[in-house]
Write a structure and sequence with these properties.
single chain; 329 residues; alpha+beta; Cathepsin B, Chain A; 9 helices; 30% helix; EC 3.4.22.42; signal; zymogen
Amino acid sequence: MAFSLVLSLFIISLSGISSVEVQGSPTVDEDLTFLQGDENIDFHQEQIYFRRSLKRQAFLNSQQKKTNHSAKYAVNQFSHLSPKQFKERYLTSWAETAPKFDPSSLEGLFKSNFPPKFDWRDHGVVGAVRNQGACGGCWAFSVVEAIETMCAIEGGKLQQLSVQQVIDCSYENKGCNGGSPVGTLIWLSQTRLKLVSEAEYPFKGVDGMCQIFPQAHAGVALRNSSTYDFSGQEEAMKNALVQWGPLVVIVDAVSWQDYMGGIIQHHCSSHRANHAVLIIGYDTTGEVPYWIVRNSWGTSWGDGGYVYVKLGSDMCGIAESVTAVTVLR
């Protein structure tokens, strides 16, 4: 059912519930026990989760420092899911142990200064936000989007490449049930598999049979990838973004279920990586410096599909598994 229709039905069904009733609603288990035998139990269950999401959003918003920079939490396409359902369906990526970044090993490569604000979108090399739907394929989206942008940075055409190809053919992962971005990039560099266009191998949102293309077929292959732990070194991470290109990162996105804009500064833990995204920029010109992060949950989530995460404190574990890529054209 379309998100807008579900939301409309929920609002109608909740129109008779007072704010006191929402704050004092019974537990989920009590509600579901009461509804046993109801043929509409799934819909009632979603109503319960929706009410609870309103309480959660109110709590998160009440905890924010009242500034224009604060993160905002509100109703979105995930509001009818319980936190457990959200995590099981959408937070399906896992991280590999990354070596600590050693700036001395790259001495002379990094610039001593870099701009206070940088966004790869300003260079015309970032495509439109995509939507993984009900497929837990964030690991594949982040990898493919990084390769798309690097191809454009290195002089190629900015085009949508096939996420479905990676989901179907990367057998060491679990398709729409999860995967490792770092492991996927290692596999792509070892096999030199050429990613074909989205039009040739469209996204279906479910696991499928791997389609094989001739080696001579046009496509984009990965040359190499480098993964580091930048914890405590986000200044160097900014430099990496400018000089190496967009960065694939794996974060703890449990608190992102209700996010609808602003800068995430609280309620986001580290060392619990579960969601892969792509950093495409940063901004340190304001009161709160932040990373600009491209997600794969569509444009109705967050700020047009983007999320802003405070820079400098490993918020959401954003600096713990950071990968840059280079491509062959």
